[in-house]
Amino acid sequence: MDQPDAMPDAAFTLADVPTRAKLAGRYRDGLVALQAALRTLQLAYMRQGLRGIVVFEGWDASGKGGVIRRMASVLEPRALNYWSIGPPPARWQGRHHLERFWQLLPEAGRLAVFDRSWYGRVLVERVDALTERAAWQRAYREITDFERMLLDDGVHIVKLFMHISAEEQRRRFKKRLADPEKRWKLSVADIRNWEQRDAYARAIEDMIRLTSTERAPWHVIPADNKKAARVEALRVIHDTLAEGVDLRPPTIDAETATAARTRLGLDLPGDLQ
């Protein structure tokens, strides 16, 4: 029988992870370079029929949406699915908590980005007592089994947790409140979660300890500095999804090259002569 993936750090605590990181180099240069690399990566997935999943979890106002926007803005939308995950609708009540996610998994040649995910079972459902203790405790094994099945089937998975300090989170809430165009982003649920930050911290630590495996580890991104966080998150996404993938552009077939020269009258580049 196959053995489960080893857990890399059973002693993980959020206190060991900084919330602020310094940006190396110019933000614009780093961002543009990573966006171009992600575009190349996606084209490789499309050509080779690969499947990739990006999972975002994090504190409220930690910048998940900002990273997603800067990634999605350069990707081919026809080969990208974006899922914003909230509470399960009524039709999923009473069914296995992972069942609704099967229909959201990417098809060949596509990427799927999850803004929150199946980890809600061991986060909000645990903290707000929306499910029984035995159910969320069992979910750690169910989730690692679920991800292992996907990995064994060739799916590439990258998981990111956006980590900000309590002070920075409160500052961002204040900024949202002051901006009429961003007030909609602040909700009573955000305030309730703020009040339960210690409980969420314990749940997050357990999540990372129990579901971070060698093949699908959690990447905790220091996110107090938005620009540094965006660059680091995009780097992790690219490097993880690119592992083992041939990123070289495909060569044009001889028949098409000949037709371009003889029927369109085009001069062929030197490497196609």
* Global structural class: alpha/beta
List the secondary-structure elements in sequence, H or E: HEHEHEHHEHHHEHH
CATH architecture: 3-Layer(aba) Sandwich
CATH topology: Rossmann fold
Using the CA coordinates, give the radius of gyration: 21 Å
Helix amount, in percent? 40-55%
In DSSP terms (H or I, runs of 4 or more residues), the helix count works out at 10
Largest sheet: 5 strands, parallel
> What is the terminal-to-terminal distance?
54 Å
Oligomer: single chain
Which strands sit side by side, in order, in the main sheet?
2-3-1-4-5
Structure, explained:
This protein is α/β, with parallel strands linked by helices and 273 residues long. Helices cover 44% and strands 12% of the residues. The chain has a single domain (14-272), classed as P-loop containing nucleotide triphosphate hydrolases (Rossmann fold), CATH 3.40.50. The chain has 10 helices and 5 strands. β2, α3 (99-102) and β3 (110-115) form a beta-alpha-beta unit. α1 (27-48) packs parallel to α9 (226-242) and α2 packs across α9 (226-242). It starts with 26 loop residues before the first helix and ends in an 11-residue tail after the last helix. The model has no long low-confidence stretch (mean pLDDT 94). Belongs to the polyphosphate kinase 2 (PPK2) family. Class I subfamily. GO terms for molecular function: polyphosphate kinase activity. Pfam families: PPK2.
SSE map:
Layout: H1 27-48, E1 51-58, H2 64-72, E2 80-84, H3 99-102, E3 110-115, H4 124-127, H5 133-152, E4 156-163, H6 166-178, H7 188-195, H8 197-211, E5 218-222, H9 226-242, H10 254-262
Parallel strand pairs: 1-3, 1-4, 2-3, 4-5
Helix pairs in contact: 1-9, 2-9
Protein name: Polyphosphate kinase 2, PPK2 family
Keywords: Kinase, Transferase
InterPro entries: P-loop_NTPase, Polyphosphate_phosphotransfera, PPK2-related
